C-alpha cells in the first residue's frame, strides 16, 4: 500500500508542483484584492487613477498640412 502511494506521488510530482504554484498565485491575488478593498473601505476614498494621453505627433511621419488637404 505504501509503495503504491509513493508511486502515485512520483508520477504526479510535476502536476502537484504546478497546482501548488497556481494556488499560491491565486491566493496572493485574492490577498491583494482584499487588501485593496479594505484600504478603500477604511479610508472611504477611492485613490485617483490618472490616465494621461499625449496627442500623437504626426508631424514627424507625415509632411506638414497632410491632414488638412482638400480632395478637390
Q: What is this structure's SSE topology?
A:
Elements lengths: L1 H10 L1 H31 L29
In short, what is this structure?
The chain has 72 residues and is mainly α. Helices cover 57% and strands 0% of the residues.
Describe the structure.
The structure is a single chain. By secondary structure, the chain is mainly α. 57% of the residues lie in helices and 0% in strands. It has helices spanning 2-11, 13-43. 0% of the residues are buried. The mean pLDDT is 78.
Keyphrases for this structure?
72 residues, mainly alpha, 2 helices, transmembrane helix, membrane, transmembrane
Order of helices and strands: HH
Number of helices: 2
Strand content: under 5%
Q: Provide the low-confidence segments as ranges.
A: none
> Structural class, from helix and strand content?
mainly alpha
Average pLDDT across residues? 78
Q: How many E-type strands?
A: 0
Keywords: Membrane, Transmembrane, Transmembrane helix
Amino acid at each position: 500500500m505504501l509503495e503504491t502511494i509513493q508511486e502515485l506521488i512520483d508520477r504526479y510530482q510535476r502536476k502537484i508542483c504546478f497546482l501548488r504554484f497556481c494556488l499560491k498565485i491565486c491566493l496572493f491575488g485574492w490577498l491583494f484584492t482584499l487588501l485593496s478593498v479594505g484600504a478603500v473601505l477604511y479610508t472611504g476614498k477611492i485613490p485617483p487613477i490618472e490616465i494621461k494621453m499625449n496627442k500623437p505627433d504626426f508631424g514627424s511621419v507625415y509632411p506638414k498640412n497632410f491632414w488638412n488637404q482638400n480632395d478637390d
